Amino acid sequence: MANLYSLPDLPYGYGDLAPYLSEEQLKIHHTKHHQGYVNGANKIFKMLDQVRKSGSEYNVKSILKELSFNMGGHELHSFFWTNMCAVGKNGEAGNFGKELEEQFGSLDRFKDEFSKTAASVEGSGWAVLALDQMTKRLVLMQIEKHNVNITPNLPLLMVVDVWEHAYYLDYKNERGKFLDAFWNVVNWAEINKRFEAMT
């Protein structure tokens, strides 16, 4: 049997994003919601191993859709944790910051567009900043759920989770307030490191 997913450790403590994200909010998001996507994907992987070994049939459409959903949830959450940092540890945006200014006009303009991208996701989903390496353009995208409306094959630079489970304990249904708070824990140094590795 091939390897299965496991829940990654956070690169900071559960209380280290307070007051912008509470310890309770972060712990539930990580240990309940993210763990749920890990468990969901692993359950399907095990089932597929069994049915392929036995030669049994399965409902390809529904099972593979569910697998895509759980895999997307795991991959995006794993990325999300690392583009945040403990309060006061944001670091410098470096060359990434210069590129933001070049393409968006200013850091504030980028933050405004990214926040509007996240705020206008229909239902539950994500806002993503990716790099189109062919055109060297920074591209904003929306992902509904974990696996709908994403442009394929563009490496991610940063993401924000706008499922209500990401912020409901702290901000109730006020997604905009959560997004305002998010900018206080963005790990600019880590995002710059990713950008420099891609360019």
In the predicted model, the low-confidence regions spanning at least 5 consecutive residues are: none
What does the main sheet amount to? 3 strands, antiparallel
Taken as a percent bin, the fraction of beta residues is 5-15%
Question: What number of domains?
Answer: 1
Described by the principal axes of the CA atoms, the overall outline is globular
Order of helices and strands: HHHHEEEHHH
Oligomeric state of the chains present here: single chain
Give the number of DSSP strands. 3
Write down the Rg. 18 Å
Going by CATH, the homologous superfamily would be Iron/manganese superoxide dismutase, C-terminal domain
For the residues shown, what is the average pLDDT?
A: 96
Distance between the termini: 37 Å
How many distinct helices? 7
- The strands making up the biggest β-sheet line up spatially as 2-1-3
Give structural notes:
The protein has 199 residues and is mostly helical. The protein has a single domain, classed as minor pseudopilin epsh fold (3-Layer(bab) Sandwich). The chain is 51% helix and 11% strand. It is built from 7 helices and 3 strands. Strands 2-1-3 form a 3-stranded antiparallel beta sheet, with helices on both faces. Strand 1 and strand 2 form a beta hairpin. Helix 1 runs antiparallel to helix 2 and helix 3 crosses helix 7. 27% of the residues are buried.
Task: Write a brief structural summary.
The chain is mainly α. The protein contains seven helices and three strands, in the order H-H-H-H-E-E-E-H-H-H. Helix 3 packs across helix 7.
